[in-house]
Structure prediction request, 723 residues.
Amino acid sequence: MTEEDGCSSMMEPQFEAGETAADGMISTADSISCRSGQNKTDKVDLESNVELEEDVRDCNLRQEDVVRQELFQNDDEDDDDSGTAYFNLDMAGTRLQRAERIGDASLPDTFQTNELLYYERFKAYQDYMLGDCKTSEVKAFTADYLEKVLEPCDWQAQWCTDVFDVLVEVVDVNYKELKAQVKLVVPLQCETRGCELTEEAMNTLLEATLQKVPLQELRAVFDESGDFDQTALALEHLRFFYKHIWRQWDDEDEDDDFDYFVRCVEPRLRLFYDILEDRVPAGLVAEYYSLLARCSQKFQEFSSLRNGISSDSESELDNVSMVEGLRMYEQMEALKRKLRIMENPLLRYVLGYKVNSGQQSCRAKGPRASGGRMVHVVSVSTTVSQLQGLMADKLGPKFSGEEFEVQFHSEPLLAVSACYEGDVVIILPGHYNVTSSISIPDSISVEGFGLPDEVVIEKKNKGDSFVESTGADVKISNVKFIQHDAIEGILCVRQGKLEMENCVLQCETTGVIVRTSGHLTMNMCDLYGSKGAGVEIYPGSVCSMVGNGIHHCKEGILIKDFADELDTMPKITMVNNVIHNNEGYGVILVKPSDAAAAQGEAAQEDTPSDEQLDKEEGEDWMKGEGKLQVDVPVIVVDDCSVKEPVSYSSCYVVPPEFTEGNDAIKRELVATSAKKQRLQKSRLKELGVTKADDNLLSQEMFVSIQDNQFRRNGMGSFGTFLY
Prediction:
């Protein structure tokens, strides 16, 4: 055996014991051992062995440094889709940008880290900081992460608070407490807001805090060498996590067995960036932050009350406090449940938010003081023949009275904005581009003078919705709407009544939304292209759809039901609609699971189950024996071969497989309405109300569903989604 072979054999056991190191460092250690063997004499003495051990020790130190830096390197060098793509060991210097200060120039610049992309933060939290930890393990995993990547001492940072920014030097880090021991950099370099600070005052403050400050309040000073890039990013991830992801009540989460990243971090991070990128309606954003503030306040009140109760005391005051604590706990759980719904990407768009949130863009003007009415004619340019046709077909027969005046506009938005109650907007053929939402707060009529494909209104810019109706009685006909980048929907009926006839709705994101207290009548319209539901129907609304086509959407029609027993089911009429080629169901009902719906419902012995009652009431209704007996309207059309009017469905034979979904929809909606009624009666009984007003308990849903056709929908004609 040669001396080189002997060196190699001496090295092998040491590296086998440390096989967790990178393969590249093992080959480096082998080359070092071989070079050591070549320089030796024929006899391997004790001194050479000592030198060899020093080489190996240096090699291991370099190896650990590479592994430490690989925490911020891509697993695949060709893949730039990573939040750690800043670091490349082959390139010297920092890969982060400089954040230049605005204001006092005495303080040094810091690293620009607050503009990281979604996938950068996602990868940092998933792969390095949190992994698959439970909620109770978050702090331990975070401390372990910081210990690996944060410089332990001898680096400068700005200590940033609401009152001041001051330059300090970090001398030690307590990873478990998430605090750093610092000392003031002399001479004093600081920027204050609303106060004056001296070097003596800052030293006194640091002495009061035992020279320790939270790591979240530190921002690493910019350094071009790249030695502190990892430290700057680690501080940013920690700061962002505790500001936007972590909740005060997460520590007390009962679901501690589940992956905290999957259950909480990912949906909250996605919501933050959806809000940042204007993908969430403004009303939903306002409601989410309002709920978050209320839940935080309720948690603080609950914690204070709980800490004041003695576990050994049996006094009456403590008993009262316990009852109050239980009440506050239930309120807090209800708020947390609403927050989870909004944080869940699927439920956020399936359920939406239930209130108007003050998003009405303008108030109703009411009638003109003079009592007159205006006809607003919209046209970029027109011909004499078009004007003659307009006079003969529209203006002359319908608006020749003395109370009418005519006004011309070049854009539909200007015409609608100028309307008072009772005005009429007539849009001549043309392609009109609008850049903001069209809000209709007054009772007006908007008519296209021609076929829908000839009168086109297209929205280019982003916004919560395209057309928003809040008027008491609004009519729209013969218009084609083309939607781009609307967050909430192509058309939203927030309140009041909207009648649409012979319109085309070309959606890109969301379709028609009928909010609580809204009333939509939609006849002979064509709707397609929605990435969500073509029509979303909220509790407490009224929706009548006759003779429409709804196709090539994510879902055809989505009917929403909330767990709150005070939310009444919508009143729905669906006749002769063709719902086809949708990715999911033709009609889908979103409702709470049995566990959620049963909250607040008193359990009674010898009482039939909800499923039995729902089934019985649904069957009784279908037989005509239940309370919900309604007259189903039938569309009457003229047939040249029959002198008497006949129903639409008898004009041609429709295969039964295309219409079988009608009865299934009716049964499910009636059963759900019956369950709602029982929940509300139970609630009133708990409140001590023994005799309730019949109108108050009238939860019956006016269901008229007949002759609808369901063709080639991906998941079938009807389905339910439980949350």
